[in-house]
Amino acid sequence: xxxxxxxxxxxxxxxxxxxxxxxxxxxxxxxxxxxxxxxxxxxxxxxxxxxxxxxxxxxxxxxxxxxxxxxxxxxxxxxxxxxxxxxxxxxxxxxx
Length: 96
Ligand SMILES: [Zn+2]
Prior knowledge:
Elements: E1 6-10, H1 18-23, E2 28-33, E3 36-41, E4 48-50, H2 61-64, E5 71-76, E6 81-84, E7 90-92
Parallel strand pairs: 1-2
Antiparallel strand pairs: 2-3, 4-5, 5-6, 6-7
The structure holds zinc ion.
Zinc ion is lined by residues 55, 57, 60, 62, 84, 86-87, 89.
């Protein structure tokens, strides 16, 4: 079952683990302190993400106007689905 999706981070690193959930919703993060695992974190999908995922709709305003931030809101936590704020395009985490 070798799980490769474990990421180790140093405890003092200012790092937003929720962003990892956007790449792989099943990820586990080990927080390391003095070379020991002090915490295991299962990141939760954030309710709102900005400029992390991109809208795939070529007609979306964010595809046309590059200065507009890509804003997505979570619509289904279980399925990892986000909706584009501008065009309602659905982005599924881990699939796109
Ligand atoms: Zn869009």
